[in-house]
Amino acid sequence: MATATDTRLLGKSIKRREDPRFITGRGSYTDDLKLPGMTYAAFVRSPHAHAKIGKIDLTQAKAHPGVVAIFTGKDLTGVNSLPCGWLLPELKVPPHPPLAVDTARYVGDPVAVVIAETQDAALDAAEKVKVDWNVRPAVTATAKAAEKGASQIHEVAPANVAFKWQIGDAAAVDAAFKTAAVTVKKHIVNQRLVANAMEPRACVARFDAATGDLTLWVTSQNPHVHRLLMTAFVLGIPEHKVRVIAPDVGGGFGSKIFLYNEETVCSWATRQIKRPIRWTSTRREAFQTDAHGRDHVTDAELALSRDGKILGLRVKTIANLGAYLSTFAPAVPTYLYGTLLNGVYEMGAIHCDVTGVFTNTTPVDAYRGAGRPEAAYLVERMIEVAAVALKMDVAEIRKKNFIPKFEHGYQTKVALTYDSGNYAAAFDKLLGMLDYRKIREEQAAARKQGKLIGVGFSTYIEACSIAPSKVVGSLGAQAGLYESGIVRVHPTGKITVFTGSHSHGQGHETTFSQLVADELGVPMEDVEIVHGDTGAIAFGMGTYGSRSASVGGTAIHMSIHKIKEKGKKIAAHLLEASPGDMEYVNGQFQVKGFPGKAVPFGQVALTAYVPHNYPEGLEPGLEETSFYDPSNFCFPFGAHACVVEVDRDTGHVKLLRYVAVDDVGNVINPMIVDGMVHGGIAQGVGQALWEGAVYEDDGQLVTGTMMDYALPKADMLPMYETERTVTPTPVNPLGIKGAGETGTIAATPAVVNAVVDALRPLGVDHIETMPLTPERVWKTIKAAKAGR
Amino acid sequence: MKHSVKMTINGQTQSHEVEPRLLLVHYIRETVGLTGTHVGCDTSQCGACTILINGQAVKSCTVFAVQADGAKITTIEGLAKNGDLHPIQQGFWEKHGLQCGFCTPGMILAAYQMLERYPKPSEEQIRHQLDGNLCRCTGYHNIVKAIQWASEHMAGAK
């Protein structure tokens, strides 16, 4: 028999309502936009990693048919630096002009923009711009940037050091290492990655000279942030005269958070030429100019007792920031990294020391996971290294160290207070899915036949639902990290929701309408979700750090609560009852316990807009706005496992199984959450096995196209076996933690651990650098054999 | 010097004067105005621009518009008939085979030819046949399922 709970929409895998437009080719992405009088921009970029800019000769380019205007850095008068939105103490903040003026500092650094009647004319003319380059020595390698003699990149940053940062208790760690029975030390390189959202960045900027309004369509994860940074910091034009629209956006993975040179230049230039300008990145430009991710070089040491308890963790990391400080760059290798080194384990003491360095490379910022994958990778590699040293099973050593189940807070050694966790439960579920004992038996049998089979684990903790404004403000953030949600009930009872979150693949139009329809007991079809337009939405911080459902969803939830409270007053008046006696059940306001004495939602909505018979003193209308500022981060967790076979002769790694248990708290739409986990896993596997940005010493990006940078393809990956445990967070009323990044964080260590495990019979206990390409694995095998 | 081209796109005749260097994908997007076909790379890796030329799945960034003179072309906008989704489109919807949607038109049209060649493909065949199409969101899991769904339902329809 159907019960009331069967009608609930939360927790149901409802098909996505945004899909019909995408599967029929009717999505509307920025590059699809064509406006009357449109012009097209092409950027002239530095072919050198480090060069003084001499004379720029525009004669030939200007004479090219169809050219409308050409601007160089010197023309951008009144335009400020691109800002850095996270200021650590004593951070060196060098100028970051939207068009380089005196010096180009990475291959791809833009020095001029050509605007023409057609895209081809712009590209052709850009090739005719002649720049006198005075090439200087470049430094690209993370570990070498601060070395003596390295080329100086910015005057304000001696030795190319942007910051030195630390967290934890160095003395306690020293003490732990003195008493430890076993210590292990490893060099760990977390290589540079390129996000590679399938849609390249793009913008269309249109200035209306008659009204003074500027409209910018841009591939952004956070249009309000784009507008704020551009108006308040860079262009100095009034915020209310600028509308930023992020329409359908084809993936972001972090790379579309930041304010970039190109949309800033186009927004400035459209005001000069008074015509719309479109710019769309080529993939080659994307490789050179989309903010990169990761790029850490680390020495890590773990101290343990004889029975495998973790006593101390000591970490020294050099983080490559690239040539300039991208919007949130300083936060990633510090507060999103060092604070996560506690993992899901009880640790005696932790100390982490990070040096952020400038290099002549593309700026580095948040890429899916952002700091947390680097932390998880380190912890999970080190614990397996320790297990080998202690001759312990890798599952046992984890079980030995898990933080026991808790529901209301666990204080880590690195500042954070976890919300709720049951780490052993997720791990046990994983072992069950894997059939761990059996798989080890199979591995042993295969090894006897000479096969290299490996089993690798990872557990992870994630800080998401970003973030409590006060906390991040005290840590250097120049923004609050709340979210807004407006619920507008129309006179007919239909609903439009305006959210500051932005969907670029996450399916908000489905999940948020599910949430609203569930809470108000109305059909999903009656709910429309509007996002990605500063002209429609009050304000918003956008989507990153797995915050949309937990922070954006909670803001909507709060507005729904207010709608219900107001509706109770209206309904009580109509029923001549007391508002305190009213409840909202199954789409109607009713006197508590009397479903017959009720006013349907639609009638309340109509009454609010036609207030003839209406409570004294109550404002007409039914629309509520809420800003939700979380009291803490949320901390999803989980355990992943990977089974691989390594080809002894070629070094090729084949993924045999990938098993994942994630705990993201309550789930609105399991299908969508599973999908995000899948995609995250693929990206994490990509880092482990194939992906990596490679620079020549002279600063040329060798992996500058999709031919050279190996993105995961369908035939490189298996089907994923995914399950969940559910530990709701006490932080927000929805109990939702966040699900966007878990797979990426967990997969990389699971895969690398599996490959190392496969090579263990050869005496291998570590491979310093990813990706574990066949060449690297083959060399590891060869070196191991030679060393025996 | 411009050249005349004439082709049928989604059943409609298109004729324009084009530069010889104009890529077919830019012709379709910018000249004809069908923006469902996407450009994701410059090197023919990503497959977001996949269309059907005379029934063959082709990356339209590897073809000049002038080379398609006289061709019969289907883009993603032409796949649904009379408002009815093609089973492959339906499969992508049913099985959550897309997230951001950018690679999706190319994926669907690559799958179209795959299922003509292999009406009952194995998982391995599906993965192999998708070698020319990149997706950064789904990890391919649900794309495989979407194509399996389509295969089952297309077989049922025949």
Summarize the topology.
The complex is a heterodimer of chains A (788) and B (158).
Chain A: H1 19-23, E1 39-45, E2 51-57, H2 59-63, E3 67-72, E4 103-104, E5 110-116, H3 119-127, E6 130-135, E7 161-168, H4 170-179, E8 182-194, E9 202-208, E10 213-218, H5 223-235, E11 242-245, H6 261-273, E12 277-280, H7 283-289, E13 292-304, E14 310-322, E15 350-358, H8 372-390, H9 394-401, E16 410-411, E17 417-418, H10 423-434, H11 436-448, E18 452-461, H12 469-474, E19 483-489, E20 495-499, H13 508-520, E21 527-531, H14 548-575, E22 582-585, E23 588-591, E24 594-600, H15 601-609, E25 623-628, E26 637-646, E27 653-663, H16 670-689, E28 720-724, H17 742-758, H18 774-787
Parallel strand pairs in A: 1-12, 10-11, 14-15, 20-21, 27-28
Antiparallel strand pairs in A: 1-5, 2-4, 2-6, 3-5, 7-15, 8-13, 9-10, 9-12, 13-14, 16-17, 18-26, 19-20, 19-25, 22-23, 23-24, 26-27
Helix pairs in contact in A: 8-17, 10-11, 13-14, 16-17
Chain B: E1 3-9, E2 12-18, H1 24-32, E3 50-53, E4 56-59, E5 72-74, H2 87-94, H3 104-117, H4 123-129, H5 141-157
Parallel strand pairs in B: 1-5
Antiparallel strand pairs in B: 1-2, 3-4, 3-5
Helix pairs in contact in B: 2-5
Number of strands of chain B: 5
- The total count of helices of chain B amounts to 5
Distance between the termini of chain B: 48 Å
The structural domain count of chain B equals 2
Sequence of strands across the biggest β-sheet of chain B: 2-1-5-3-4
Superfamily (CATH H level) name of the largest domain in chain A: Aldehyde oxidase/xanthine dehydrogenase, molybdopterin binding domain
Overall geometry of chain B = globular
Average pLDDT level of chain A: 96
Order of helices and strands of chain B: EEHEEEHHHH
Question: Stretches of chain B where pLDDT falls below 50 for ≥5 residues?
Answer: none
Strand order of the largest sheet of chain A: 3-5-1-12-9-10-11
Question: What would CATH call the class of the largest domain in chain B?
Answer: Alpha Beta
| Largest interface, chains and sizes | A-B, 60 and 58 residues
